Structures are given as structure tokens and as C-alpha cells.
Amino acid sequence: MKCAVLFSGGKDSTYAAYLAKKFDNDITCLISIISENPESYMFHTPSISKVKKQAKVMNLPIIVQKTKGIKEEELKDLEHAIKKAKNEYNIEAVVTGAVESAYQASRVQKICDNLNLECFNPLWQKEPEEQWDDLLENRFEIIIIGVAAEGMEKEFLGKKIDRQMIKKLKEIRSKYRIHLSFEGGEAETFVLNCPLFSKELVVQTSQIYGRGNSWKMEIDVK
Amino acid sequence: MILLIKTPNNKFHDLEFVKPIEDILKRDNINFKSVHYTKLDKKIINIADKIIISGTSLMDNNYLSHINNFNWIKKIEKPILGICGGMHILGLIFNGTLKKFQEIGLTEVIFKNDFLGFCGKYIVYELHNLNVESKEFKTFAMSNNCTQAIKHKKKSFYGVQFHPEVRNKNLIINFANL
């Protein structure tokens, strides 16, 4: 099936793209939403401009849609981007990396239904432990580029997620009750390499900003 | 053994509509076997203790064109739980009719009587464009829009319009432990 992947560059949407391909779908484009609101209800925000570099190493066209990130209004921008994907790339389906958020999933479902498109959420209800196992077994190289939770300090920024890091995250979970897949926005991730990439992306420069319990790392990759 | 009947026309949808049910059963060490409705045979139906029929995506109405694949339901007595599309199948097999009713997202549902351990108000996850009505079933729960939980008047056949595998996992466990 010809599909577009709603792509943030993080672990979940990249893994959803990987699964779409594994199930013999034809990914004809990626769709990324750049939100001007860092507290967006729908979209992961840090380092989103770097998705263009990821799209390049995936050899896929990308539709980048800006939004002011105002609740519900950002859905119109998303619908506009999906319509564009339908018109320009003849997509028949949209794939998302939604795991637990009924808010995100139901809104994308409604847009797809309005546009007569199938909607696939291949990570829906997936247990975090299983998701991390799948990501690491399939050689996904993931770094943390945003933290916003007690127990997840600024020092986590830029760190690769490997088995040792998962162990550490589980310890933090038992102390601070974070969601291991960061469904509560505890952290944002960026994929540097995975089986869909023709080459590994390397961080060239990084800039850290934030305050209190909320820190982000803007990166430039090549 | 629970027979989990898969309804999605596209295997990629199994990850969304079948695997979450399988994960719930696995977590409780409940023995099950998943089979697509087009691959069913008498043997597997006969050896199952209970049957769950999954739902599928909003656009996927393929199971409605193959409703005759489910005629065996009329002849069996073992408990069945139909989820969303699975509830439509149960209703249609017992002379029901489908109506258009769309609900997407979290919705409040009120169970007037005990239904697989559920009674009172619950927030459930909905994803449907259709709803079934059959006089051979009694209604146990409603949302503002339509019927949400039904049970056959004579048999242990349960149907839910919402997706218990998303927000109300206990309903599946309670059915498995009947």
C-alpha cells in the first residue's frame, strides 16, 4: 500500500516507518510538522528541522508543514499536509508512531477518515520493554535530544540509548515513575541510524538550552 | 485455549487490532491461538474453550462481505467476545442490522448492569463507523450515541462496540476467566 509516514525523526515514528516497509508497504513520502509551540499537544518539537537530513538518507521526499501549534488549529495544518501527500504522492494510507495517546491517535484517525485514507498505528499499545528490545535488535542508533522529567537530568542530552541506558531508565522509572517509552513527554529522541538509512548521521554541533527540569539539545547532523 | 479470530484484511493492521489483545492474554499466561477468519477450520473451533473476534480499521469492511464465514457461530455454545467489528459479526449472524454511527476517541459509557465485571461509568476508546442492532441480544451499556455492550439472550455471546484492549483491558481478562 502506498503510504505516508508521520515522521518526527524520533524512535517511534522511525520504527513505524521501518515496520511499514517490513510489511511490504511502499513509503512514498514522509510528513513532518514543525511546531512553533514547544508545548505542542500533537507533535514532538526539538531538532525537527533535522528530519530533512534523515529523509535524505532514507531517499524519501518529505513534506514539511509549519504550524503555530495552537491546540486543534494544528490539526488543520496536519490535515493540509496529509491532503498534500494524497495529491502529490497518491498515498492510500497514513502510518503513525502512536503508542498510547488516544488524543493523537484519534485525531489522525478522524483526518484519515475524512480524506478516505487508511490509517496504520503499528506500535499501538506496545509495551515499552518490547519496543526498546525491537529497536536495539534492529540496530537503531538513538540519542536523547530532550528531557523533561524528574530523574532525567540535562546530562542525558546527547547520550545514546543502549542496553546500559535502558537499565538506567528502568531504575529511574522505579524511583520517579517515568514512562519507559517517554509517552508522558519525559524525553525526546533522535534516530542517527537504522536499517532504513543509507548511511549513519553524525552529530556535528550541538547547543543545549532550557531550564529547571526541561532541557533540549538542538543538533546539526551530517 | 482461547481462539482469537483476526478480522483485519491487511496483516499490517494486526499490530494494531490483534497484537494488543494477544499481549493482554500473554501477560496473564492465558493460552490462545490466533487465526484469520478466512483460515478457520472445524477442528480449531471445536478445541477452543472460548472465542474472541477482533476488530479492524475504520476503512476495512471486508469482513462484512464474508459474513457467511461466520455461520458456524449459530451452532456453537461456547463463550464468544466480539470486539467492534467482532460485535457487528455477532449481531449480523443473529438477524441484526448495521447502522452508521461514528465514534472516534475517548467516550463515556454507562453499564446499567454487570457485564463481564463492568458496572457504572467508564471511559472507553472508540473507533467505529458502524453499529449493530439485533433483537436477539440484550443491551448492557450505551454511550450518548449508540449501543456499546450487548449479550445474547440465550447464549454466552458478548459484544462490545469499543476497544477494551486499549483502555479497559480487564474486560478481556474477565472474559478469559469466565
Notes on the protein architecture:
The complex is a heterodimer of chains A (222) and B (178). Chain A has two domains: 2-120, Rossmann fold (3-Layer(aba) Sandwich), CATH 3.40.50.620; 130-221, Alpha-Beta Complex (putative n-type atp pyrophosphatase, domain 2), CATH 3.90.1490.10. Chain A is an alpha/beta fold. Chain A is 33% helix and 27% strand. Chain A has helices at 11-22, 51-57, 73-89, 102-114, 128-137, 163-176, and strands at 2-6, 26-35, 62-67, 93-95, 118-120, 141-148, 187-193, 203-211, 214-221. The radius of gyration of chain A is 16 Å and the shape is globular. In chain A, α3 packs across α4 (102-114). By secondary structure, chain B is α/β, with parallel strands linked by helices. Chain B has one domain (2-176): Class I glutamine amidotransferase (GATase) domain (Rossmann fold). Helices cover 25% and strands 39% of the residues of chain B. Chain B has helices spanning 14-17, 19-27, 42-47, 62-65, 85-93, 164-167, 169-176; strands spanning 2-6, 32-36, 50-53, 80-83, 97-115, 118-133, 137-142, 147-152, 157-160. Chain B has a nine-stranded mixed beta sheet with strand order 2-1-3-4-9-8-7-5-6, with helices on both faces. The longest helix of chain B has 9 residues, at 19-27. Chain B is globular and about 40 Å long. The model of chain B has no long low-confidence stretch (mean pLDDT 97). Chains A and B meet through α4 and β5 of A and α2, β5, β6 and α6 of B.
